[in-house]
From TrEMBL:
GO terms for biological process: methylation. Residues 1-66, 278-371 are annotated as: Disordered. Its EC number is 2.1.1.221. One of its GO terms (molecular function) is tRNA (guanosine(9)-N1)-methyltransferase activity. Keywords: Methyltransferase, S-adenosyl-L-methionine, Transferase. PANTHER family: TRNA (GUANINE-9-) METHYLTRANSFERASE (PTHR13563), TRNA METHYLTRANSFERASE 10 HOMOLOG A (PTHR13563:SF13). Residues 90-281 form the SAM-dependent MTase TRM10-type domain. Residues 319-335 have a biased composition (Acidic residues). It catalyses: guanosine(9) in tRNA + S-adenosyl-L-methionine = N(1)-methylguanosine(9) in tRNA + S-adenosyl-L-homocysteine + H(+). Residues 21-53, 278-293, 305-318 have a biased composition (Basic and acidic residues). InterPro entries: MT_TRM10-typ, MT_TRM10-typ_sf, tRNA_m1G_MeTrfase_euk. It comes from Zea mays. The keyword Transport does not apply. This is tRNA (guanine(9)-N(1))-methyltransferase. The lineage of its organism: Eukaryota, Viridiplantae, Streptophyta, Embryophyta, Tracheophyta.
Length: 371
């Protein structure tokens, strides 16, 4: 509330109260989802522990139990080996992308001073998801973070393993980092008049890193115009009739671009990434009869909107959870007669500190980062 001239807090308007109540409900639902996910994971760990203990208890002899532990240990070794291979293959793909094979995409992080702390936090999560989905892609982009300084850099540095990311980082603005290629810069903004027909490998596409809930409308278009660089928007209107704004989150725009590089089909890319609830009347009768364009649509509805779980992010970093609690099994191998030891989950490098949620509709660079 804002104080009036008499020093007393002024009453919120009806629309302001409704907006505040909506935000409070969203926060409550988010907290409930996180609590439910945490409880599900805890119950799953406990279930697996009981199943392992029961299996050991049912073994006919100490020798049989020793064989079970040895087999489990070998399974773990194989799984660790596969993960190492996957990490190596992912690193090779990302390095090839950086050497010229990947579409150049810049996340413009110069807007930190316009965002609230929770919005910077949300943007950080969206950046994490961008990096994760890029690592999973068969044709990853050459991804840049520019204007990566101050509070934004501080938030990113808190991500475990961030310093090991195979990504370009620049504290200076993109206009300086690419001053010799200014003619190739294209700012993606929902307010642009030019519509992208294709992605050009010679171009450097910029996504505005801004979560602002519509406070700074038109800011990215204005920025690109003042800098004298090109601007364009994704051809969403050619394929979808959105139920709300065409401005998408940073990770949605980035994943759409990756999907287009893979398929060379905008419609497939949009339907794969944009959640169904945002599409309005997008799907034609034929699409509905066919059951939609993408079998992964349900998953896309959550992940694409930035509302993703720790498991989603961990998969992208290639540090999935060790489901079997192998660290505890090392102790069981030394003393197989002690069958009632607890099994502990061993998290991957990026898992512990990845916050699971990014608020829906919290905005990003979308068709340009204006919210």
């Amino acid at each position: 509330m804002v104080a009036d001239d008499g020093g007393k807090p002024a009453e919120l308007s009806k629309s302001a109260r409704k907006k505040l109540q909506k935000q409070e409900r969203q926060a409550e639902r988010k907290a409930a989802r996180k609590a439910a996910e945490k409880e599900r994971r805890r119950a799953d760990i406990e279930r697996r522990r009981r199943e392992w203990e029961d299996a050991l208890a049912a073994a006919p002899s100490d020798e049989a139990r020793a064989e079970m532990v040895a087999a489990r240990r070998e399974t773990r070794r194989e799984r660790v080996g596969r993960r190492a291979e996957e990490r190596g293959a992912r690193a090779d793909r990302l390095r090839r992308a950086a050497e010229g094979a990947g579409q150049k995409v810049v996340l413009d992080l110069e807007f930190a001073d316009l965002m609230r702390p929770n919005e910077i936090h949300s943007l950080t999560q969206q950046i994490m998801y961008c990096y994760a989905v890029n690592g999973r892609s068969a044709n990853p982009a050459h991804l840049w973070l520019t204007g990566c300084s101050g509070e934004m850099a501080t938030h990113l540095q808190r991500i475990p393993g961030y310093d090991k990311w195979i990504i370009e980082r620049a504290a200076r603005p993109y206009i300086e980092a690419f001053e010799d290629r200014k003619e190739n810069l294209v700012y993606l903004t929902a307010d642009a008049e030019t519509v992208l027909d294709d992605l050009d490998m010679s171009k450097i596409y910029i996504i505005g890193g801004l979560v602002d809930r519509n406070r700074w409308k038109g800011i990215t278009l204005k920025k690109s115009a003042e800098q004298g660089i090109q601007s364009a928007k994704l051809p969403i209107g050619n394929y979808l009739k959105m139920s709300s704004s065409q401005v998408l989150t940073v990770n949605q725009v980035f994943e759409i671009m990756l999907k287009f590089v893979e398929t060379r089909d905008w419609k497939t890319a949009f339907f794969h990434v944009i959640p169904q609830r945002k599409r309005g009347e997008a799907e034609t009768r034929d699409d509905v009869e066919k059951g939609g364009l993408d079998d992964n649509d349900g998953a896309a509805e959550g992940a694409a909107d930035g509302d993703h779980s720790e498991e989603d992010l961990n998969k992208g970093f290639g540090e999935e959870e060790d489901d079997d609690g192998d660290e505890e099994l090392e102790e069981e191998e030394a003393d197989v007669s002690n069958k009632r030891q607890c099994v502990r989950v061993e998290n991957g490098e990026a898992g512990d500190a990845t916050v699971a949620e990014v608020e829906p509709n919290n905005g990003g660079g979308g068709g340009g980062g204006d919210r």
